[in-house]
Amino acid sequence: MLDNEFYISRESKASLVSLICPKFAEHSTEKDTMRSLDELRELMRTLGIETGEEYIQNRKTIDPGTILGSGKIEEIANKAKAEGSTILVFDCELTSSQIRNIKKISGLSVVDRCHIILEIFSEHARTKEAKIQIEISRLQYILPRLAGFWSHLGRQKGGIGVRGGEGEQQIELDRRIIRDRIAFFKKELKEVEKSRIEQRKKRSKKAITAALVGYTNAGKSSLMNRLCRVDVLEEDKLFATLDSTFRMLNPDTKPPMILIDTVGFLSNLPNTLIDGFKTTLESAMEADLLIIVCDISDENFEKHLEVTDNVLKELGVDDKERLVIFNKKDKLNDPIKSRIIRRTHPDSFV
Ligand SMILES: Nc1nc2c(ncn2[C@@H]2O[C@H](COP(=O)(O)OP(=O)(O)OP(=O)(O)O)[C@@H](O)[C@H]2O)c(=O)[nH]1
Ligand SMILES: [Mg+2]
User: Which ligand sits nearest to residue 294's alpha carbon?
Assistant: First the structure.
């Protein structure tokens, strides 16, 4: 039941909603809001869901119940319905009561940025470890939002209030099921990790390790493919890679070196996901060298470097030896840019 509630139909059309608010991180200026919205549109494209218009409200403060004002939500809902949308995607994290309130006012499905990222992660996870991790993150995201998801069901059933008996009981039941599932998957994860730690020990004896890290879609997997002549999945999608992959660099390299491809970073990455993927990143973080890959052709590349830096700090590896590689030089329409970058980042490769 819960899984159906969480799933977003790929056939739906979605309208994007955001705000410009001086007190709201990543949305404090028009530039920040637009950059984040462009990224959200890319996330939707990755998921294969058609997007319609984007709706933005300028606000001095956030409405704690509905993020935007309720009148504005009504207006947006009417326009979204007129353009054939059935979902409002908010470019921020929503609480359970916010989801419930906005659903009630708009009469549309309501999801947030975090939900979209979780869907992509679920779809792209390939190894057992990544699948378990994403499942734990997904359940941890759902747990405090059960009432929000349930309000939708309530309406479908003809307006059974979520505070009413049946709703409350169902939420309590679901809460227990979810807690049990989280406990079960955490145990499973420990088992999988044991064998991974063994493999890591063997590897570190064999060679120097270098981890490719950086913003999603920067070109980490492509670089790994070219350097190691392998065929790791590379795609023009966000979060194409979710699992760390290890490959030997040209075997004649002295000393021998193993490259590690890793999951990409994103600004505003929900905490539940960072936590979940710390284990996947752990093996990469124990590497002897960090190779930061950055897409020079993206106009926000400086921001991407900043986000990468912050995530590395959060992972506690900001003091590790690093090398910056600026990628996709061929996509630059301004050749002077690469010269400027060489000057501003003298230790990098362009
Ligand atoms: N023009 C151009 N495209 C590139 C270059 N390197 C990678 N790409 C393209 O950029 C897209 C993303 O490449 P990936 O290697 O999948 O990027 P990634 O950093 O592994 O991305 P995630 O796994 O999603 O974090 C793909 O479509 C690549 O073909 C480059 O040097 N030039
Ligand atoms: Mg990749």
Answer: 1
